[in-house]
Amino acid sequence: MTAYKCVQLSSGFNMPMVGLGTFQITGVNRIQQVIDDAIRVGYRSIDTAEVYRNEEDIGFVLNQVLNKYNLTRGDIFLTTKLSPSSHGDPDKIINSVYTSLRALGTSYIDLYLIHWPGASRIPESASKNIELRTTTWQTLVELKNKGVIRSIGVSNYNIRHLEQLLKNCGGVRPAVNQVECHPHYRQAELIDFCKKENIHVQAYSSLGTSTNVSLIKEPRVCQIAKELDVSPARVLLKWALQQDISVIPKASQTSHIEDNFNLDFKLSDEHMTRLSDLSQKKYAWNPDNVI
């Protein structure tokens, strides 16, 4: 298996279309096994966040694994995210970014995302969230201009949040919007909006969640997987990729890490239609509640 293709972001940098998600993957020994497996298989993108509390272990392990496979920092695309607890406070934002840099053992972050459109301890219904988002973005633009962040983007932003941001983005548009997206929650209107605005969509929860397996056991998904002699997980990931939506599947078992990267097959138009006609249900938190 070889590294999957990249997408060129509006920032001018290339990001692999398939990355490794690390939510809830903690502990240096577990991270050692997961990242070693991933790099060996061909993953060159790793997604983490300040709130995952695993940046330091990822940084420690990644340095060792890169040496093992004769790779350099430039071969890896690292994404991390700002905690809502730092949202809207320039000093906290700057501290968070530099803390992540130290933890990950790097001089720059490839992609830095605002994790959530709301701030901690601020009611979701408070209009102050709009002001705080603008301040956060302006601070990240300054850090991008310093070179410690190469691309900046957002996560869990709906169309309203994006429209507000684009009016006050200081000429630097979000390169990525990372959102929940899968056949049970297609987000067609949001995806169309992002494509029109040249904002790349990256999907999380592509396979459902660890507490809700209804998607990966969906009869229609399983039937298509059987027809193609692939796993249901591969069907779900390919559904996104064929719409130019990148994916960051989380896995800790070696077989799943390998399977999630083995995506050299094609869904037919009929398969795509069948998958895109499933009933809709959301698994993760709902950003529409944030003003």
UniProtKB/TrEMBL annotation:
One of its GO terms (molecular function) is oxidoreductase activity, acting on the CH-OH group of donors, NAD or NADP as acceptor. Transmembrane segments: none annotated. Gene3D superfamilies: NADP-dependent oxidoreductase domain. The keyword Oxidoreductase applies. SUPFAM superfamilies: NAD(P)-linked oxidoreductase. Pfam families: Aldo_ket_red (PF00248). Residues 19-278 form the NADP-dependent oxidoreductase domain. It comes from the Eukaryota. Substrate binds at H115. The active site is at Y52. InterPro entries: AKR (IPR020471), Aldo/ket_reductase_CS (IPR018170), NAD(P)_OxRdtase_dom_sf (IPR036812), NADP_OxRdtase_dom (IPR023210). The record marks K81 as: Lowers pKa of active site Tyr. Keywords: NADP, Oxidoreductase. Belongs to the aldo/keto reductase family. This is NADP-dependent oxidoreductase domain-containing protein. It comes from Aphidius gifuensis. The lineage of its organism: Eukaryota, Metazoa, Ecdysozoa, Arthropoda, Hexapoda.
